Structure formats: C-alpha cells, structure tokens
Amino acid sequence: MTSAVRGRTTKSESFQRLKESALALFSSRGYDGTSLRDIANGADVPLSLINRYFGRKEQLFHEIQSKIWRSLNRERDDALAKARGTMHRNPDLDEIIRIFARPVVALAFASAEGRAAIRLIRERRAFIVHHDLDLRIEWNTARQLWMGLLVAACPELSRTHAVWAFSFVIDTVYSSHLLDDWLDDIMPKSPCLSVDEVTELIVTFCTAGIRALALKCMNH
C-alpha cells in the first residue's frame, strides 16, 4: 500500500515535503547539525532525490532560505518605497527601524512555520560568515542599504558606532523570545501583544539605544 501511494506522489509534492523537512530541521538544528539523510527521512523521499536536484547540502540550504529572505526584503522594499514619499531630507529613524522589523514580527506571529522560517534567516548569517560563499555578495547589498539609511537617519553616529548599532538592531529584531518563546514561563498571563505592539516595542528599544549612542558620539 505504501509503495502504491509513493508511486502516485508527484514531483511537486515530493519537493514540497522536502522543503518542509529541510525548513524544520535547519531551523531547529542549524546548518551544521542537519544531515541530508535526516532531511530525506523527514520528507519520506529517497536521498537520491536531494542529490539529483540540489547536490550538496549548502545548495539545498540556499534554495530554502533565499526564498524566505527575498520575500522579507520585498516587503521591506515596498514599505520603504512608500515611506520615501513622505520622508524629509533625512529618513526618520523610527520609520526605518519599523520597516526593517515589522515583516519579521509578522511572519513570526503568523504560524510555527513562520517562526521556523525566521530562525532559518537567523542561521543564514552564521552560514554566510563561516562558509564564505557567494551569498555574502547578496547579503552585502542589503546590509549596505540599511546601514546607509541608519547613518542618514542618525548622522551623529560614527561609522564604528553605526556598525555596532546595526548589529544590535539585527539581534533585537531576530530576538530569541520572538522566535523561540524561551521566556514564556516567566511572561505574565495577560493577553498576548499584537504584531504592531511588538513591532513598536522593538522600535522604541532600538531607537532609544541608537540615539544614546549618537549622543555619546557628539559628546566626544
């Protein structure tokens, strides 16, 4: 019976199961902790299917995470394009952080799969740095854009402080509580916050810190 069912499984269905398995395992175990055999077993597809269409593990990882990353960036680009029409000469710091953060919060709130997708993006950063692949070029374009916006919105920052500020923003947006719920046991049992409310918490936290760094630069 099982063989007959597998025989009727289409290529697109096998690919979908494969991607779901890869997303779940990469996001929970990390790139280095996940094997192609585990992914194939989780998808109930032969290992040869991965080898045939993706080759190495890094190619499968790139295929899965790049679609998620590009989707987030499209949302950010669309929001940024709308905001540019109302911004003055210098971009508004609050709005820049809001545009950067909201797509992540919205996807994480959408479903368990959404949180897994964002965890995969978090894993992507380590993957880019430690494997030194061509993905670094793709990521560099995005980080140069957001670094430029951050400096334009807060020109008092030195370049060094701006880089540190950007790193703090990234780690705040991709927070472990948002993605892993690891502080749920100490969270009050009050109604859960909405996407907009959590986004505004991130905006308030990040902009206060960035402005404090800018003041520090001005005083030195």
Automatic annotation (TrEMBL):
Organism: Croceicoccus mobilis
Pfam family, one: TetR_N
Chain residues forming the annotated DNA-binding region: 35-54
Protein's name in the database: HTH tetR-type domain-containing protein
Lineage, broadest ranks: Bacteria, Pseudomonadati, Pseudomonadota, Alphaproteobacteria, Sphingomonadales
All copies of domain HTH tetR-type, residue ranges: 12-72
Classification via PROSITE patterns: HTH_TETR_2
Gene3D superfamilies: Tetracycline Repressor, domain 2
Any one GO molecular-function label of the UniProt entry: transcription cis-regulatory region binding
Keywords, in A-Z order: DNA-binding, Transcription, Transcription regulation
